[in-house]
Predict the 3D structure of the following.
Amino acid sequence: MRFIARHEGLDIEVEVERHGSSYRVRIGNRSMEADLVDAGGFVRSLRLSDGTQYSLVHHREGNRHGITIGGATIQVDVIDPLAQRRKRREDEIGGGGVVKALMPGRVVRVLVNKGDVIQKGAGLLILEAMKMENEIQAPVDGVVDEIFVSSGDTVEGGAELVHIG
């Protein structure tokens, strides 16, 4: 999973990938393996591959994460680039239109049928991209006028998926 961590006005690219029972984490140009275990409530135990271990407190409100380690607290806004693109796309569609793939992927499952009446936020299909399954949601209320893909189809970024009228 890729996302942006915003701290004190600085945007930092972060990539997290499951690796067995731990995670491979890339922050900027640094890479490491880490285990993160829930120790109850807001407390987490973080162990790095070099054996270093930390106890931390994690609070979350929406996209804002407060992390306290060793008495120091930092505030980080976690931003999902796909969600940002999806939001821009929703704004472009307005009252209806074509829902397009934000990135290349494979259609795992189509969740709607032509003629279905849907509400904003309803799942349209599942698209696997970067080894992650993403539910593509309706950006507006409307009727599914056309479905341009089927389960198993491979699509490019920008490919038309569904038309909502």
